[in-house]
Design goal:
Chains C, D: It catalyses: 2 [molybdopterin-synthase sulfur-carrier protein]-C-terminal-Gly-aminoethanethioate + cyclic pyranopterin phosphate + H2O = molybdopterin + 2 [molybdopterin-synthase sulfur-carrier protein]-C-terminal Gly-Gly + 2 H(+). The complex is a heterotetramer, with 2 copies of chain A (about 80 residues) and 2 copies of chain C (about 170 residues). In chain A, about 25% of the residues lie in helices and about 25% in strands. With about 80 residues, chain A is α+β, with helices and mostly antiparallel strands. In chain A, strands 2-1-5-3-4 form a 5-stranded mixed beta sheet. In chain A, a hairpin with a 2-residue loop joins strand 3 and strand 4 (about 60). With about 170 residues, chain C is an alpha+beta fold. In chain C, strand 7 (about 140-145) and strand 8 form a beta hairpin. The chains are: A alpha+beta (about 80), C alpha+beta (about 170).
Chain lengths: ~80, ~80, ~170, ~170
Amino acid sequence: MKILYFAWVRERIGREAEEVEAPDEVRTVAELAAFLAARGEGYAEAFKEPKVVRAAIDRRHARPDAAIAGAREIAFFPPMTGG
Amino acid sequence: MKILYFAWVRERIGREAEEVEAPDEVRTVAELAAFLAARGEGYAEAFKEPKVVRAAIDRRHARPDAAIAGAREIAFFPPMTGG
Amino acid sequence: MPVAAPSGDRFTVRIQAEDFDTAAEIAALSAGRVDIGAVVTFSGLCRADDAGDSAPDGSRLVALTLEHYPGMAEEEIRRLVDEARTRWPLLGATVIHRHGRIVPGENIVLVVTASPHRGAAFEAAAFLMDWLKTRAPFWKLEERAEARNWVAAKEADDAAAERWTAGTP
Amino acid sequence: MPVAAPSGDRFTVRIQAEDFDTAAEIAALSAGRVDIGAVVTFSGLCRADDAGDSAPDGSRLVALTLEHYPGMAEEEIRRLVDEARTRWPLLGATVIHRHGRIVPGENIVLVVTASPHRGAAFEAAAFLMDWLKTRAPFWKLEERAEARNWVAAKEADDAAAERWTAGTP
């Protein structure tokens, strides 16, 4: 699936987007975040306070316990500061 | 003192403004309205529901029990419907 | 009476027969400054079905004629603006109210508020409109095909104004 | 997804780098119709002292750069507009949110709502702004003389959005 990063999550990880194949036991947004956090230093830094990082599944806001099965695009980002 | 009338109060009385010398015992807005109501048919019609008619003393909203002593200009009108 | 405005504050009240230009009023309030974070405008327009429910003959509105108390209208609205300034941190406000004959689709009233923050701008604009409805000395005469009637004041407007009350202006 | 609009309904969401013309947007919403009684606009502008309290070096803001999630931003705001339409009798609404680099005094966001009645227009505009702040995928990067920082989300914004909650959008 495609993973997108925005704002300081993007800056810490050092990329905007990537294709990721997560193992079957990664079933929720929170589990995906934990899986990604283990990929390296930038990732660990981005996800070090997992409750702060928000997610969207296929362009809709998703809670940490949301299932990722069937998702095409998952995004991680800080709390929004638009408007 | 000068008395002004607006909207249907003006229409019923048939004039926009007039100079009125009220006797000394007419001390409040409500007493002035009652005094005016006795001046003729149009006046009686204008003030027949005295609680509906609003007043201003010298261009500030005034309650029925407000004293009129010293007033230069008193206006009577229906509830406002601007905006 | 308005308190002497700190420099940079812009507060305007106008009663006029002519239409107004909302964009020009926003620009007048905000041009050249970098301290305004929020501008709210309220435009009140004449509707064809204004008070339609209560039209005795059910006919559509041809026009409204707004009568006002020339000596008092501007003064009273200035008092409302002054009250709003005591309640919210406003950097500017403009209120324009038209009088005379107005046909459906035309503007009747404009309120513009500017503040560093959105909550203050929204609340001050709503406050000014609610109080203007119940306190500014204007009266609407409806003109329909078969009738002309003075618009009755709405209890809903009194209720809207009352929600700001603790100290009334 | 937006419900198919009854004819005459005008609902617009745009994400763009360019500035917008508030007067043109009001006109687009209200031109040629006689059923709108109230138009409320909210313009959000970039302030020189935006988030100034928390500036590590106290220096003035040079610019904001707004990053957004292109695929989601418009969709999410459309969902908020749809939610507003279920809550208030809107005849039209326009939301425009800019992205890219914006200097103090420039516009960031515009919300316009049109309704027969003022309460609905005010409330829908405030609702859209409150929810947009907490749900639209935009992030502000501050540029100052000595630093660049991502703006932190405000608890006050969450609280403002929560006041509309019973059913969240």
